[in-house]
Write a structure and sequence with these properties.
Blueprint: E1 2-5, E2 18-20, H1 23-30, E3 36-38, H2 41-72, E4 76-81, E5 88-93, H3 95-106, E6 115-116, E7 121-123, E8 125-133, E9 136-146
Parallel strand pairs: 4-9
Antiparallel strand pairs: 1-2, 1-3, 5-7, 6-8, 8-9
Length: about 150
């Protein structure tokens, strides 16, 4: 049975892909959970328009981010966190938190998927974070201060 994925499904594919799956798997597992829809000619046409709309919005978002990379490059952002006596954080800092910090300080909407770190942020101190958008990139420092 040909189906269109409505979400990323592990070991099957990514959202908006058309896949061929067994009837039993589709009818008993995927369709009841809303993960897929049956691929009909009408749904395939709507899929193309959905894909085009998503790609256009992602392209606009990336263009805005690239324009604002210079405002972020080389900056130092500070975050105060609780640490133990060895300087280790009680909870690691997630890239979603870094993304919201950047938005609050610079008013630049930056999805966490564009942020890259070499290792998880689990200690107080300076951490270098890279922003990669297409071929463009910028680097900034996250300074984790012990509370």
């Amino acid at each position: 049975m040909k189906v269109i994925l409505n979400a990323d499904v592990a070991k099957l594919g990514k959202k908006y892909e058309v896949k061929d799956v067994s009837d039993g798997h589709a009818l008993n597992m995927l369709i009841p959970k809303g993960l897929v829809e049956i691929a009909t000619p009408a749904s395939l046409k709507s899929l193309e328009s959905k894909k085009a709309a998503v790609e256009a919005s992602m392209k606009r978002l990336e263009e805005v981010i690239v324009k604002n990379l210079k405002a972020i490059h080389g900056k130092v952002f500070e975050m105060i966190q609780k640490v133990n006596e060895k300087g280790h954080l009680f909870a690691a800092i997630h890239l979603d938190q870094v993304s919201s910090l950047i938005k609050s300080k610079t008013n630049v909407e930056l999805p966490a998927s564009y942020l890259h770190v070499e290792k998880p942020i689990k200690e107080a101190g300076d951490h270098e974070i890279t922003i990669k958008v297409g071929k463009e990139s910028a680097i900034f420092t996250l300074k984790v201060i012990a509370e």
